[in-house]
Design brief:
The chain is α/β, with parallel strands linked by helices. Helices cover 45% and strands 14% of the residues.
């Protein structure tokens, strides 16, 4: 059978269709379908499936020879997409297929049958068989057929599709669709036979157990075949058989010797057969070598190996071919073959190739003969049979057992059908027994026929152990009575102790008592020790009357009945004696909700599952009293029906009323007989069940009463409700969108009673548009949204063929009107390395730059580039190269860094003193100068790209701009108008508002239309009500089923109260802190899962405690692992072009991912059913309040040296949020799935946008070709690099993403899913902010310390500051330390050292004075103030800036201490609420706190009149959060008494960083607001260069501290000059190198030309004299001096004599001639092995005076060869001439490049010259200003005041926005610039004496004196 790819592919597709159909229909395959499934043979050898096949255009990627397979591959994709739930599942299947292309080679059935039948004929008929790599089950089927009886088969198959085939083909067997490494430990030493065709290929396996064992086990995990052998042997019982088909590498490779040795030490070698290479040709179309190895486990064998076993261990290498071969195959007798040759293996290495020409049938016959011979000789049947596992189950069962089984089955059937457990009447109390007798007489008569109750009481025990038993005979209806019979057991009889539930859970004797102590002195009546007492089941509590006589409720009237009952008692005793309470295998049906500790019934006994495996379990019976047994039975039924119902509805999303009815009936029965599940008397049984907590959540408390959970009344796993009728066309439209996700006019028409189709379209005109692409209408918010450029073009093409389609024309017009204006090429700013640009563009540019063909490839999965060139030149190796200490970084290295926007880490070696030993040692440090030069050349490459683009044709530019517009400038945000919404159920009166804000309505409408988004509203804009209304509306409309709101701990109570007020009838779950303890948490999670909530409200911390779906985590990590594996494969294919470090890095990453995946797999495998994860809860939408709290999301980047990036590792909180969102997004198949609400979505940097998009828009990013942060930054960010001198005078590189480009497109991408509103937009009635920059001169101590700080920043000498020297780690953060000291110095010198004292002019004194001023000013109104500082914290009894200001307020200003409080005092929620209430009531007048503690969740604005910022925070969002404490709705005092303004004072010490930081924040906030409003004034912005992670740069720091901003300019100029001079030095070094190479090259050319001339002269002389024979061969007429013979042999002998004996003392000595050329000999001294010896060398010289030699001047020993030495030397002349000519051509090509470098001038020389001139001018200006430095500050201030008082403060800041330049720096140059930049917002306060700020009685006159600008 020849291999046919088309037939194989078609058979595979048919099999895949079949298995999907079987899975969907939930049935077993028919015989015909089995035949189809068996045709599946994987995709080994079908590489065509790796090609794209989504459209006909993909055929360009296909080879012509495979084009005929394109339709089939396209069909394969369609089949998979049709049968998968989402894109991720489809990708998993495709990855499975791709992985099988190189590894899936299925074994021909004939070979497997030969093996299994030979084993059977040899006496091996296994009962327990394992196939660890089962494929489609060929081995499993063969052993099943060979056994002739049902055996237990366990199969593992990692490939998803193959596993499905296997499951369908082997119903009833244990099929595990996972790797062999997941097999459970209980299967060690278990199987009779382990047989398989194990995986081919060098792959690693992660096995946690193996990693903890010896080195051999650990090493075996590095090669999958070694692992399978060891794991397979360990799975065998002693004597068991292992038969593996494996690659030849197992036996051939010397690296596997330790594994082979271990195998021979622990098994007997039964057989090893080498199979032919064409074994798999018919099934996989490939040739690969393989071996069949058969071993028998024998761990107790003789350690001395046999002859054959020793051969098996060893390998030998052929000297001729270099091929390694196992010694066992020293000849061909062990090989199935008819032809042998030398070829190559699949990896291209030399290998022996064996072919068998008899086909599969011939191979099988050949192999069978060898196996029969081997089994006869080496198979140990005694060893095999001596260790066969004997099944403990008896073949025959006793009559009692059979009766028990039959009757128990009957009861089970009756119970299942009738669902009426009243037959279990043994434990009914008298009331219910009477009810039963009265209301169910028929049932009583029926059960009287069947049931007799028998009880046994052990001696001395006052307990009854009654149990129903089933009599084996019929009894007369009228005569049989229900009796309780007790019997005293003879003391001589011993009984084994029985296990009870009490024993299991460790109850004490006191706890075991079922009867509570009777109070009041009553005594229990105990039965007499005499005759047994007959009790009626109606006797109360089992007590008897006072006498000892035997009493019955129903007297026995017939002696025949007594005999029958006696016989019944005897049989019952026999049955109970036979009952086993030993642990045994569980024979019942194992459900997915069963786990260790689950209560179950098995063969009539109650017990629990002691161990739980994937496919089996062990059962521990319990000896229970009748009451407990009956209650447990009833509980198990409730539990089982609940799980069956929930799992069915969750899986199929369909209602199952039959199961719900059974759940209700079983629950009602339990409650009627035993009370509620949560009754205390039932908790002992229910909590003993492992899943009991979940069952208890089936009841919930409402108004103090237990009621059924919602699952009893309807589905909770999905929403079954949908709209049946609509009142308006709008409602019909919403209903259609909710039900179908699109406009369906037929459905909408069915909801309307008074509207037809045309009427609907007319009503919805402007709301819906006809989309001809899908031939349906779409809502406006969907049609005019997204990439409308592409949409418009597609409609235009449609209208060309359908010009009369009026609705389509109207739609096109609407979409064209909304299309963004295209951005011209001249407006675009391109980064070199943007991933969306075609690589051919980069190749064209760099090929021209390097003057060489360069290939650039981009790999999106790992976001990496590879660069290659077919040749190198001086441009690459010289012009664009940097020489490191030990490596040359060529232009190709720098090109890759240019593409990635990174810089090479070039190092050098320096000698330092070891701080521990004091000894010198060498260390590697960054070579700053080399790095700087490398960065300069990288910048030249990057910047040159823009210049090159400008030089291209207009057509090229327009095409590039068009591509950009299509990808990025194509998004439109719909104008959401939510005014039409009526919000049914919303109680506006209860909320106390007339209506929602329009902004709230619009935001809710956006959320409903998009299915989520971002609510970016300022503080106080009503985000809480947005969440409540949106959640309720989405639930009402069926868009979501179970929304969850996640908020700050301080806010969730308010959110819950608002929700309940807004929607009084809403069903809300809001667990308090005390409800969320670890013990109660499981119940909360089950409540979420089992009920249909309108909203679940949790805190951020509570949300973080929800276990995330391990399947989702596994999916995310698996996708990353697949990406890593793909990258590894790519890198390995690159061979030597890839660095080992990069390869190793990926391998480590792969191992880490495998460990995480293994842990997740264990977690999934061992998951207990009572652990409810996020996915199981059914949450389908998240509302995340204050979403910026989750911004610390992990991301991957190469820019690890860039400041201000945040932590790429992220936080677990953020990762949990990502997992939750991916769970929701996977379910919906769309982006979003959540609504983020925050007024500070971007808190500090635009880089945070990427993380927002990663959360909410992963699919949209993927369409833009962005799948990592680096890819995003390559499009939208520019990196700035500064160079400074470090402490050790080394150049230090500082990088930052400072500039952002293409910002309008970035803003459009953000705004498309965002509703951004400021308080002003909304019209919120809140105070205005009156910012005051309060300028404070430095104190004398601060002046001195500022000088020290500048010196420290310059030198790094920390002792100047009075502290220890900087450590090595601190040296890297010198400027951060300096910045931190400057901040502390500005606040209070005592923060640096308590030795510094107080000062009247420090910040604390001024702040205290201003606080007192406002305190007195608003004393009557009880005005309050907030004081913020993030430096220092309040601690009772310790000094801090907080406590110091309070001391001044109390002691200096007389403010009562109790009116001044610190937020840190509030240790509990109640204490925090009390502080807030005190502020609002005016009892507390001043509240201190930090941004984190006081900046959020504090609604104390009622009386706030001022905010004081002692320091400026790092982020704009922090400043906004602080100000929002007072500037928010509800500030009554500011509105009534302060002109509706709040003063915000920023305290700034001169010559400190306060003003700088403030201005930086103002600029950042300006840019962020412009971006959010999508109204950018520029396309590029500059964020500034200071952050909390690295501080600021040295020059700016020193200049600001000096107080002279001219010094800042000077420092900047000096830094630029320093950098340019460094570049010039590097340029000159490069130029010097070029000069040297140029001179060397010209010398070489001249020298070569001379050699060519001389050789040409010799060649001409030779050609003129040479003699040839008739064939044209040169004659050799050699003449030796003093030798007359011309015989070549004689001449050769003479030459050998001279070679041995001549001594010329280093001179050339003539010994003969040839064609006029002189023959010379020279004696040279040589050193060999330490000895000096004489070496004679021979030459021939012509007129050119060049000495030619052959064989390096040595004479051959053979005389004839020796005589030809000189003619051979002369024949080399043409080749030598050519060599010199080629060398010259190469040098001449390099000459122009070197000449260009030599003639070039430093391009930045004019810039450097101008900078130096500017520096000289500035230095003169500074010197001049220093002469006037002694002028009084008061005079200067007065002059400033006089010049400014007459200027008017503008009312609006529109001028500021208009004046923004294209690139706006965030750095203030002077105090005046700060004023100018914020002219309309800031008042500069004068420094006044606190004593003068005394109340003047008039509120308006109490405002501090200030300078209004």
């Amino acid at each position: 059978m020849a291999y046919n790819k088309r037939e194989r592919l078609k058979a595979n597709i048919d099999a895949i269709k079949t298995v999907f159909m079987l899975e969907k229909e939930g049935r077993k395959p028919s015989i015909e379908e089995q035949a189809l499934l068996k045709q599946y043979a994987g995709f080994g050898g079908l590489k065509c499936v790796l090609n794209p096949a989504s459209s006909l255009t993909d055929t360009v990627h296909w080879a012509k020879s495979e084009l005929e397979l394109f339709p089939l591959v396209a069909e394969l994709h369609r089949v998979l997409k049709k049968n998968t739930a989402n894109e991720n599942e489809y990708k998993r299947y495709m990855n499975s297929i791709k992985n099988s292309v190189l590894t899936a080679f299925y074994t021909p059935p004939g070979i497997v049958n030969a093996l299994s039948e030979t084993l059977r004929s040899s006496g091996i008929i296994p009962k327990l068989v394992l196939d660890p790599s089962a494929g489609t089950g060929e081995f499993a089927h063969a052993f099943h057929q060979a056994a002739g009886h049902r055996n237990e088969l366990v199969c593992f198959e990692k490939d998803i599709l193959t596993g499905k085939m296997l499951s369908a083909l082997t119903p009833g067997q244990k099929v595990n669709i996972e790797g062999f490494e997941t097999i459970e430990n209980r299967y060690n030493n278990y199987f009779d036979v382990v047989s398989s065709n194990i995986p081919f290929g060098d792959m690693k396996v992660f096995d946690a157990v193996f990693m903890k064992q010896d080195q051999l086990h650990r090493d075996s995990t590095r090669a999958i075949h070694n692992y399978f052998f060891i794991k397979g042997v360990e799975s065998l019982r002693e004597g068991g058989i292992l038969a593996f088909i494996t690659s030849q590498g197992v036996m051939n490779s010397p690296n596997n010797t330790p594994v082979r040795k271990w195998l021979m030490e622990n098994t007997n070698l039964v057989s090893a057969i080498r199979l032919p290479n064409n074994l798999f040709t018919d099934y996989a179309g490939t040739e690969v070598g393989s071996d069949l190895i058969v071993l028998q486990k024998n761990t107790g064998k003789d350690p001395k190996l046999s002859f054959w076993e020793n051969l098996f261990v060893g390998t030998s290498q052929s000297e001729l071919t270099g091929i390694y071969n196992n010694d066992y195959f020293y000849n061909f007798s062990r090989i199935v073959q008819t032809k042998a040759s030398i070829g190559t293996d699949p990896y291209g290495k030399p290998a022996q190739v064996f072919i068998h020409e008899g086909g599969i049938e011939g191979m099988a016959v050949y192999m069978r003969k060898m196996l029969e011979s081997d089994f006869k000789s080496y198979l140990d049947l005694d060893l095999y049979n001596g260790h066969t596992v004997i099944q403990k189950q008896s073949e025959t069962k006793s009559t009692a057992q059979l009766d028990r089984k039959e009757h128990s089955q009957g009861f089970g059937d009756t119970f299942s059908d009738d669902l009426n457990p009243l037959w279990q009447t043994d434990d009914l109390d008298p009331f219910w027994q009477a009810v039963e007798d009265h209301w169910f007489p028929d049932e009583k008569e029926f059960w009287n026929k069947k049931v007799e109750t028998v009880a046994k009481v052990q001696p001395g025990k006052n307990t009854l152990n009654a149990e129903f038993q089933n009599p084996p005979f019929d009894m007369d209806d009228s005569g049989i009575e229900k009796v309780l019979i007790t019997e005293e057991k003879p003391p001589s009889v011993t009984q084994e102790p029985l296990i009870t539930l009490y024993d299991l859970f460790g109850f004490t004797e006191e706890e075991r008592s079922q009867i509570k102590p009777v109070r009041g002195g009553k005594k229990k009546v105990t039965p007499s020790k005499g005759n047994p007492i007959q009790l009626s089941i109606f006797s109360s509590n089992g007590q008897t009357s006072g006498n000892n006589n035997r009493t019955t409720a129903y007297p026995v009237s017939d002696a025949r009945k007594d005999k029958q009952q006696e016989r019944l008692r005897q049989e019952q005793r026999q049955k109970e004696e036979k009952l086993s309470f030993e642990t045994r295998p569980f024979t019942g049906e194992l459900k997915e909700y069963h786990k260790v500790g689950s209560l179950v019934e098995d063969q009539g006994q109650i017990g629990y599952l002691k161990e739980r495996y994937r496919d089996g379990s062990t059962f521990q019976p319990l000896n229970l009293p009748s009451t407990q047994r009956s209650k447990t039975n009833s509980y198990i039924e409730v539990r089982d029906f609940y799980h069956e119902l929930y799992n069915h509805e969750a899986k199929h999303l369909t209602v199952h009323e039959s199961l719900r009815s059974k759940l209700n009936q079983s629950y009602d029965s339990f409650v009627r007989r035993f009370g509620n599940l949560n009754d205390k008397k039932n908790l002992d049984i229910i909590k003993m069940d492992a899943g009991g907590n979940e069952i208890l959540s089936l009841e919930r408390t409402i108004d103090g009463k237990l009621q059924k959970a919602d699952i009893f009344h309807g589905p909770v796993a999905f929403n079954p409700n949908e709209l049946k009728a609509a009142g308006t066309s709008d409602e019909a439209l919403i209903a259609s969108l909710n039900k179908y996700g699109e406009v369906r006019l037929d459905y909408m028409e069915s909801l309307m009673t008074d509207k037809d189709r045309e009427g609907l379209i007319s009503d919805l005109h402007g709301r819906i548009y006809f989309n001809p692409i899908i031939q349906n209408y779409e809502v406006q918010d969907r049609f005019i949204a997204g990439n409308i450029v592409e949409k418009a073009e597609r409609i235009e093409r449609y209208l060309q063929d359908h010009p009369d389609d009026l609705p389509a024309q109207e739609s096109l017009k609407a979409i064209q009107e909304a299309t963004p204006e295209p951005i011209r090429f001249e407006q675009l700013d391109f980064n070199f390395g943007e991933r969306w640009i075609n690589m051919s563009v980069y190749e064209d540019y760099i090929s021209k730059l390097f003057e060489a063909d360069v290939t650039i490839d981009y790999y999106a999965s790992r976001d990496d580039f590879t660069v290659k060139t077919n040749k190198s030149n001086l441009i690459i190796n010289e012009k664009f190269a940097i020489q490191g200490e030990s490596k040359l970084y060529t232009g190709m290295h720098l090109l890759k860094h240019a593409l990635l926007n990174t810089t090479p880490n070039i190092t050098k070696t320096i000698t330092v003193t070891d701080p521990e030993t004091g000894e010198p040692k060498e260390v590697k440090v960054p070579d700053g100068q080399a790095i700087q030069m490398a960065n300069t050349k990288i910048d030249e490459i990057r910047n040159g790209f823009s210049d090159w683009l400008d030089q291209q044709s207009s057509e090229f530019k327009n095409n590039l701009a068009d591509i950009y517009n299509r990808k990025f400038n194509c998004f439109v945000r719909p104008q959401y108008d939510g005014s039409h919404q009526s919000f049914p159920g919303l109680d506006l009166k209860a909320l106390g508002i007339p209506d929602l804000y329009q902004s709230q309505k619009d935001c809710v409408w956006m959320i409903k239309q998009n299915g989520g988004g971002i609510g970016d509203h300022e503080v106080g804009a009503g985000k809480t009500l947005i969440m409540c209304c949106a959640a309720y509306e989405m639930k009402r409309l069926g868009q979501v089923n179970k929304p969850m709101i996640v908020g700050l701990k301080a806010n969730v109570h308010e959110i819950a109260a608002t929700f309940k007020t807004a929607y009084p009838n809403a069903k809300i779950l809001y667990p308090g802190k005390e409800d969320f303890t670890p013990k109660k948490r499981a119940k909360i999670f089950n409540d979420i899962k089992n009920n249909s909530w309108d909203a679940v409200i949790l805190t951020h911390d509570q949300f973080g405690k929800i276990p995330q779906s391990p399947e989702m985590q596994q999916q995310i990590f698996q996708a990353e692992l697949e990406s890593v594996e793909e990258n590894l494969e790519i890198l390995r294919n690159q061979g030597k072009d890839i660095s080992k470090m990069m390869l190793r890095g990926l391998e480590i990453r792969k191992q880490n991912l495998e460990v995480r995946l293994s842990k997740l797999a264990d977690q999934i495998k061992n998951r207990t059913d009572d652990v409810v994860d996020f996915k199981m809860m059914g949450i389908d939408h998240l509302f995340v309040d204050e979403s910026h709290q989750f911004k610390n999301l992990m991301f991957t980047t190469r820019h690890d040296r860039v400041a201000g990036m945040g932590n790429p590792e992220g936080s677990q909180r953020a990762l949990n949020m990502l997992f939750a969102l991916r769970t929701i997004q996977e379910r919906s198949g769309k982006d979003l799935g959540a609504t983020f609400l925050s007024g500070t979505t971007i808190s500090n940097s635009l880089t945070e946008l990427y993380l927002l998009f990663k959360y909410l828009r992963p699919k949209a990013l993927e369409k833009q070709g962005i799948n990592s942060f680096d890819a995003w930054a390559a499009v939208f960010a520019k990196k700035s690099t500064d160079y400074e001198f470090s402490v050790t005078n080394q150049i230090v590189q500082k990088e930052r993403f400072r500039y952002f480009i293409k910002v309008p497109e970035l803003a459009a991408f953000y705004s498309e899913i965002t509703d951004f509103r400021t308080a002003k937009d909304i019209g919120i009635d809140r105070p205005e902010k009156n910012e005051i920059l309060y300028n404070i001169p430095p104190t004398p101590q601060q002046e001195v310390f500022i000088g020290k700080l500048m010196k420290f920043a310059e030198t790094g000498d920390a002792t100047i500051l009075g502290r220890a020297k900087l450590t090595e780690k601190e040296e890297k953060a010198k400027m951060l330390i300096a910045t931190d000291y400057a901040r502390k110095m500005s606040l209070d010198m005592r923060m640096i050292n308590m030795a510094y004292g107080d000062h009247i002019d420090n910040k604390a004194s001024h702040c205290a004075a201003k606080i007192a001023e406002y305190y007195n000013k608003y004393d009557f109104q009880k005005g309050t103030q907030f004081v913020f500082s993030d430096l220092g914290t309040y601690k009772p009894g310790e000094w801090s800036p907080y406590s110091e200001i309070k001391r001044k307020l109390v002691e200096d200003h007389g403010i009562p201490a109790h009116e001044i409080r610190f937020i840190q005092e509030a240790k509990t929620d109640n204490a925090r609420k009390a502080l807030i209430a005190g502020m609002n009531e005016g009892r507390i007048r001043v509240l201190f706190g930090s941004t984190s503690m006081l900046g959020t969740g504090v609604n104390a604005q009622r009386r706030a009149v001022a905010i004081h910022h002692l320091d400026t925070p790092w982020r704009p969002s922090d400043l906004n959060q602080r100000d929002g404490r007072a500037i928010r709705k509800g500030n009554e005092i500011a509105k009534l008494y302060a002109d509706n303004k709040v003063d915000v004072l920023i305290y700034a010490v001169e010559k400190s960083l306060d003003s700088y930081k403030f201005n930086l924040l103002q600029n950042k906030q300006l840019f962020i607001n412009q971006l959010k409003t999508n109204n950018m004034a520029t396309r590029t912005i500059d964020e500034g260069s200071m952050d909390e992670g690295s501080g600021m740069n040295f020059s700016e720091y020193v200049a600001i501290l000096s107080g002279n901003t001219d010094l800042l300019e000077k420092a900047k100029l000096e830094k630029k000059i320093m950098a340019l001079e460094g570049e010039r030095q590097a340029f000159n070094r490069s130029k010097s190198s070029a000069i040297y190479k140029y001179e060397d090259a010209t010398r070489s050319i001249d020298s070569n030309n001379e050699m060519i001339s001389r050789m040409t002269k010799d060649l001409l002389a030779l050609n003129g004299k040479v003699q040839t024979d008739k064939d044209g061969n040169k004659l050799n007429p050699i003449l030796l001096d003093n030798l007359d013979s011309k015989d070549p042999k004689v001449i050769g002998e003479k030459l050998n004599q001279l070679a041995n004996n001549a001594r010329t003392n280093g001179e050339y000595f003539k010994i003969g001639e040839l064609y006029g050329f002189r023959i010379l000999v020279k004696t040279e001294e040589s050193l060999k092995e330490g000895s000096l010896f004489k070496d004679n060398r021979f030459f021939i010289e012509g007129e050119g005076n060049i000495k030619y030699s052959y064989n390096n001047g040595h004479i051959a020993v053979d005389p004839l060869l020796a005589s030809k030495n000189f003619i051979n030397a002369l024949e080399k002349i043409p080749n030598l001439i050519e060599k010199y000519q080629v060398d010259n051509q190469r040098l001449e090509k390099d000459i122009p490049v070197l000449k260009e470098v030599i003639d070039s001038v430093f391009r930045k020389e004019p810039e450097l010259r101008d900078l130096k001139s500017e520096l000289d001018s500035l230095s003169r200006q500074i010197n001049l200003s220093l002469e006037n430095r002694n002028k009084p500050d008061e005079q200067m201030l007065q002059n400033t005041t006089d010049s400014m008082n007459n200027r008017i403060l503008p009312q609006h800041n529109s001028g500021l926005i208009d004046s923004v330049s294209d690139v706006r720096s965030g750095q203030p140059m002077s105090l005046k610039e700060i004023i100018d930049a914020n002219r309309d917002r800031i008042i500069i306060a004068s420094v006044s004496n606190p004593d003068k700020n005394i109340d003047s009685g008039d509120i308006k006159q109490k405002v501090s004196r200030g300078i209004k600008i």
